[in-house]
Amino acid sequence: MVDTADLKKIGYSMVGFIAIVLFFDGVYGGIGGLPIIDYWYVSLVIGLVMLACSGYIYKLSATFETIEEMTTNVLKEIHTHPEKHEFHIIYDDKIAHKKIPIHAIKVKRIEKGFLVIEGEQNHELFIPLSRISHTLYKGQPHWLKQQAAKSEDDDE
């Protein structure tokens, strides 16, 4: 199943591809009449340089992550960390109106949009990633969602 974040990435990629094609068409129309472009090897080199630049620009634009992707990456890093027993994951419980710490050892897996932890009597508890507020390592802040959101806003 495709979620909206994937659709946005596909849409932005399509728009970028169309923009590059239109740009190349404009460049070709603008400089296509120059005598130096009549030589095929010059045209080949210019085209390769332009393609390399467009790939580099795409790579730069593809590095932006959403808050959910950042949260997932941090939780995966913690889940595979050799000192996993030193981490705590803090989430906002909307019913109890308080922040609840979860020992990282109780994490079973990270599914699409959910943190799955081992509850009482071998029941699995699903916590939405949107409720994860921060993580602690040896009692000290390791990752804060507010800082991640602020850095994402600064990048834009």
Structure characterization notes:
The protein is an alpha+beta fold. The chain folds into two domains: 4-61; 67-155, SH3 type barrels (Roll). Helix content is 47%, strand content 25%. It contains four helices and seven strands. It has helices at residues 4-31, 40-61, 67-79, 145-155; strands at residues 87-93, 98-103, 107-111, 114-118, 124-128, 132-137, 140-144.
Low-confidence runs (pLDDT<50, min 5 residues)?
none
CATH class categorisation of the largest domain: Mainly Beta
Alpha carbon gyration radius? 23 Å
Work out the helix count. 4
Give the SSE layout:
Blueprint: H1 4-31, H2 40-61, H3 67-79, E1 87-93, E2 98-103, E3 107-111, E4 114-118, E5 124-128, E6 132-137, E7 140-144, H4 145-155
Antiparallel strand pairs: 1-2, 1-6, 3-4, 4-5, 6-7
